[in-house]
Design a protein that fits this description.
Blueprint lengths: L2 H6 L5 H4 L6 H25 L6 H4 L4 E5 L2 E4 L4 E4 L2 H4 L8 H13 L11 H13 L8 E5 L4 H16 L4 E4 L8 H6 L8 E4 L13 H17 L10 E4 L2 E2 L5 E2 L2 H13 L4 E4 L23 E4 L11 E5 L18 H16 L2 H22 L3 E7 L2 E6 L39 H13 L2 E2 L1 E3 L5 E4 L7 H25 L6 H5 L1
Parallel strand pairs: 3-15, 5-6, 5-7, 7-10, 10-11
Antiparallel strand pairs: 1-2, 2-3, 4-12, 8-9, 11-12, 13-14, 14-17, 16-17
Helix pairs in contact: 6-12, 7-12, 10-11, 13-15, 14-15
Length: 509
């Protein structure tokens, strides 16, 4: 029986037990013990947790310590974390101002659970939140604390606009993601009992009308107008419209600013409340404090979660005061009074605002996008690079060419990757087919290099970067270097074999 098997079954030899501390053999034993414990945790997770788990499948690590951009696993490896709790960690892991805010509440003896009672901690949070809201909303806004997740805020927003308008249906957009409960799933394109009409979301790379740009956005807007104004469209006047200023899980697709303004005019002229889902885009992520500020749009309702809790569970709905028609008890939630999350959220909101981290995200994000686009010009498995601020997506595609035997790419000849005779563009000039298997391969190669990234997009073909807003220039360079190495490894494995990228297991087999 080998050392690993011996550790897993709990067996020890007398020689192992008698080795002196600090010796080479003792260090080997210690490393093997750590690895055995680490692998045991992963095995128990697989045996005991739901099959619905997602991140744990693609990222088989056991985090034990973290600070800023860096996570340390139980196996001693360190990783640069560009997942950031799916955008929750605006300041990265365990930022000192967040930890201090939490300790202050803990040391004060204040109650941690208070339902919706007023507290100094809640008052400070609301004050700081209202200080950051888009112009035109803060002066007459109301806030509803919901259950702790973003999907709870979406459900509350739907209930709010239905009560305010007396109408029932909702408008949402293809590619959207608003949560995992019934109403939010309906808005995200899944079949539910909630009546949701889904509209085309404009984008350049995979334009639903085949053209992109201003023309594609114009057609998407006209489609929306037609659905609302055609008595035979089958879509009655809805209670509200919900949209993401940047579709996150949908593949990092920024909404064109002019189209956003058009949606505001369309909804306003028809008395349809506009709901902005800023759950992932908010708190400086896209280069403005709230992503709607890029277009100058003031929504009627904003749903907020993730970063506003400073890494802890918190979700709220902020809305125009005249929509506040709820009777007492119409909407509630046991865990809407999370004092630690409010304290951490206040510290996070204030730090981002006072240190200009939104502006920093805009500058650094533009630089990272520029470098990634140069990478895309070198490797045709990258179909598109897009994003806003530090919300970045890299879409992996399948080059439409079968390579013959012996037609390998010289690793020193980068020009071959862009040779149209080797990798011809699609005949219609459109985007190449999405390649989810290549995206998954890039994610695996990133993890091997100590970089954690997320996948998204309708076909799971988009590698997503959501680094903390506190990322340094040097760290950003390290992230891009590791991602570039991973893309190169996958591209060469794909093009040299003339078939989709083979996993290490496949190659070993």
């Amino acid at each position: 029986m080998g050392l690993r098997e011996s550790m897993e079954t709990g067996e020890r030899t007398g020689a192992q037990e008698s080795r002196a501390p600090g010796s080479v053999d003792a260090e080997v034993d210690e490393c093997a013990g750590v690895r055995g414990a680490y692998e045991g945790i992963l095995r128990r997770q697989s045996a005991r947790e739901s099959a619905a788990r997602t991140y744990a499948r693609a990222l088989p690590i056991v985090p034990v310590r973290a600070r800023g951009l860096t996570i340390e696993g139980a196996d001693g490896r360190r990783y640069l974390d560009c997942l950031s709790g799916a955008g929750t960690l605006a300041l990265g892991h365990n930022h000192p101002v967040v930890l201090e805010a939490i300790r202050t509440v803990l040391d004060s003896g204040a109650p941690l659970h208070v339902l919706d009672l007023a507290t100094p901690v809640k008052d400070a949070f609301i004050t700081e939140l209202f200080r950051t809201l888009p112009p035109g909303l803060a002066d007459h806004a109301r806030v509803q604390f919901c259950g702790p997740a973003g999907t709870d805020a979406v459900e509350a927003a739907f209930k709010l606009v239905r009560a305010a308008t007396g109408r029932t249906g909702m408008l949402a957009f293809t590619g959207a993601y608003h949560g995992m409960t019934a109403g939010s799933l309906g808005a995200s394109g899944h079949a539910t009992d909630v009546r949701v009409a889904r509209l085309p979301f404009p984008q350049d790379y995979r334009c639903p009308f085949g053209m992109g740009g201003d023309r594609g956005a114009e057609l998407a807007a006209r489609w929306t107008e037609s659905v609302l104004d055609d008595a035979k469209s089958g879509v009655p006047l809805p209670a509200g419209m919900i949209l993401e200023p940047v579709q996150g899980e949908g593949g990092v697709i920024p909404a064109p600013d002019a189209w956003m303004r058009r949606m505001r005019r369309i909804t306003e002229s028809r008395s349809i409340p506009l709901i902005a889902d800023e759950i992932q885009t908010g708190v400086g992520r896209t280069g403005t404090f709230w992503a709607v500020e890029h277009s100058g749009v003031t929504p009627d309702v904003m749903v907020l979660s993730k970063a506003i809790g400073g890494s802890l569970p918190l979700a709220v709905v902020v809305y125009r005061g005249d929509l506040d028609v709820w009777e007492p008890g119409t909407h509630a939630g046991t865990f809407r009074g999370n004092q630690l999350a409010m304290a951490a959220g206040t510290a996070t909101l204030a730090y981002v605002r006072e240190h200009g981290l939104a502006e920093r995200a805009a500058t650094l994000g533009a630089r990272m996008l520029s470098q990634l686009r140069r990478l895309a010009a070198e490797f045709p498995i990258i179909g598109d690079v897009r994003g806003r601020g530090l919300m970045i997506g890299v879409e992996l595609v399948e080059p439409r060419a079968e390579r013959g035997a012996g037609d390998a790419v010289d690793s020193t000849d980068g020009d071959r990757y862009t040779d149209p005779e080797v990798f011809p563009a699609p005949a219609d000039g459109g985007p190449r087919p999405a390649a989810p298997e290549l995206a998954a391969a890039v994610q695996r190669e990133c993890l091997r290099r100590g970089l954690i990234v997320e996948l998204g997009g309708r076909r799971a073909s988009v590698v997503r970067l959501l680094p903390p807003l506190t990322i340094s220039d040097e760290q950003a360079t390290a992230v891009l270097d590791r991602l570039a190495d991973a893309v190169e490894a996958v591209a060469r494995g794909h093009t040299d074999s003339g078939r989709p990228y083979a996993t290490h297991t496949e190659r070993a087999g």
